[in-house]
Amino acid sequence: MAAHVLSRRLSSGGGSGPPPQLAGALRYAACWRSYSTAFREERDTFGPILVPSDKLWGAQTQRSLQNFDIGGERERMPEPIVRAFGVLKKCAAKVNMEYGLNPSIGKAIMQAAQEVAEGKLNDHFPLVIWQTGSGTQSNMNANEVIANRAAEILGHKRGDKFVHPNDHVNRSQSSNDTFPTVMHIAAAMEIKSRLLPSLGNLHTSLHSKSIEFKDIVKIGRTHTQDATPLTLGQEFSGYCTQVKYGIDRVNCTLPRMYQVRRRYICSCSRCSLNG
Q1: CB-neighbour burial class of residue 22 (10 A; exposed 0-12, middle 13-18, buried 19+)
Q2: What's the pTM value of the predicted model, to 2 decimals?
């Protein structure tokens, strides 16, 4: 609370003291309960800004924290999206090495991106879902974290831009491309790793109950009228079939979910949209 009050006073311009970017960094630290007394200077096209030295993100992520001071930790970007950025950036680095990216830098980027994909760097992705519509800040958050981590892998310091978040990691990608792609990756991974296994367990349980209840007869009643009797096992077999059809429908979406395109390209005969 004290850090938050101090940052507000500093940012108001009253009296002498640290520069405004320190006030913003302190305000961030107070909101996220990860206050650090040490900061480093990062730079982007808007100039210098202070970033907590124990974090891997850079200038644009820090600006997003200060410009979108809303939501708090409960509204952070979902972890599956963060991990999907790791998958995407690793694949991009592998391809970029075939088109001129320095192999030593490319391999370090791949290693850092793999750590993101494995969830090892989740604490360095603090942004909330409230940001620009194309997800630009989250794309840059990934670029900056991976760049600084790759620099560390190569024996350099955070923030020295030996591995550059734009020139080396992003390398001409647009957030209009990357964010829809990571949404597809995240959705596909969640479907395969969580949704389908859970539905499979539910289907198995319902099937076992349909067998267990096969001899329990229910009296059929429809609006107080006599109706066709059935067993409780038959009723559960209906639930079982419903879940099976649901699994089939989900599986049918996956081929289209796996498609990764450059922006949105309509293939119907009536449209002339292009990427």
Answers
A1: middle
A2: 0.78
